[in-house]
Write a structure and sequence with these properties.
- The protein is of the alpha/beta class.
- Helix content is 48%, strand content 22%.
- The chain contains 13 helices and 11 strands.
- The strands form 3 sheets. Strands 3, 4, 5, 6, 9, 10 and 11 form a 7-stranded mixed sheet that branches. Strands 1-2 form a two-stranded antiparallel ribbon.
- It is rod-shaped, with a radius of gyration of 31 Å.
Length: 297
């Protein structure tokens, strides 16, 4: 079944004869007759009763005409949606990100995008950790992801900012200087680490610097970790952005041996994207994440 056959059915029904339908469709009358005849053969029922007074729909033709009009209407709607996407007067962008980025950074970036393109909908898909972000892209549930770099070759990636790991020390703790030592961090066993892949990056870092610190990674929520530090129960090491908002009395120090996570925007290398996605990507590349992060800190 072809679209030109459906258009021929509608035109003949509206015009009442094949010659006028041919003029409407800008086709020859034999072409329109052939389109109707082949469709009738495919369906196994006559659609029109032909006579000297033109073409009259059969009962089956009346029902099929209804569905033909619906099909053409849906096709028109599909074309209109595509035009909206191409013209940035509509459309939808889906962005997957892990919690700290989704909470603190993306809303501001989306607000800036909406100022210029208010008719484009942008949805945030919040993921537990950055591997989940990448899986969202593979599954087709997101167009753009924000994850930790480096990542696999299946993605195109652009760095947007770097987030340092910090030591969070309970209030009222006295340290030897403005730069904390590993021994001072280890004085609160076990030191809490994130249980996400960001925590595994930190575990690897501690092994490299060969620091004997008793750690624990059994708390899933970053806010719970920060709250325990604020109550004087534990010290913690975590990415600074994940710790925000940090209570004012909690002491924050750079690590004795610095560590940072690289945050980047990724898309699937072989994915086909509409212009709205590429426009949002371009905005993310130019967005000043560092200024926003410093404001949040």
């Amino acid at each position: 079944m072809k679209l030109f056959q459906l258009r021929a059915v509608v035109a003949v029904a509206d015009c009442g004869n094949f010659s006028e339908a041919a003029l409407t469709l800008q086709l020859s009358q034999p072409a329109v007759s052939h389109a109707i005849a082949t469709l009738e053969e495919e369906l196994g029922v006559p659609l029109f009763a032909r006579g000297r007074h033109g073409a009259v729909l059969t009962p089956a033709g009346e029902r099929i005409l209804y569905h033909a009009r619906q099909a053409l209407q849906h096709l028109e709607m599909m074309e209109r949606e595509a035009d909206l996407h191409k013209g940035l007067h509509g459309g939808h962008v889906r962005v997957a990100a892990f919690r700290s980025v989704a909470t603190h950074l993306l809303p501001k970036a989306i607000a800036q995008f909406h100022e210029k393109f208010p008719e484009v909908a942008v949805t945030i898909i919040e993921c537990p950790a950055f591997p989940d972000v990448e899986q969202c892209l593979r599954d087709g549930r997101a167009d753009i992801g924000i994850t930790c770099l480096p990542t696999s070759d299946e993605f195109e990636a652009w760095e947007i900012f770097r987030d340092d790991y910090v030591a969070l020390i309970p209030p009222q703790t006295k340290t030897s200087s403005s730069q904390i030592t590993w021994e001072e961090i280890a004085a609160y066993p076990p030191v809490l680490l994130p249980c996400t892949p960001c925590g595994r990056i930190l575990h690897h870092h501690l092994k490299i610097v060969e620091i004997p610190i008793h750690t624990a990674s059994d708390i899933q929520e970053d806010s719970t970790v920060v709250s325990m530090v604020n109550q004087g129960l534990r010290a913690a090491i975590m990415p600074r952005l994940a710790a925000v908002p940090i209570p004012p009395k909690v002491q924050v120090y750079s690590l004795p041996v610095p560590l940072e996570r690289i945050i980047g925007v990724v898309i699937l290398s072989k994915a086909l994207h509409v212009p709205t996605v590429f426009t949002f990507l371009e905005m993310l590349r130019k967005f000043d994440f560092y200024s926003l992060v410093q404001f949040i800190y």
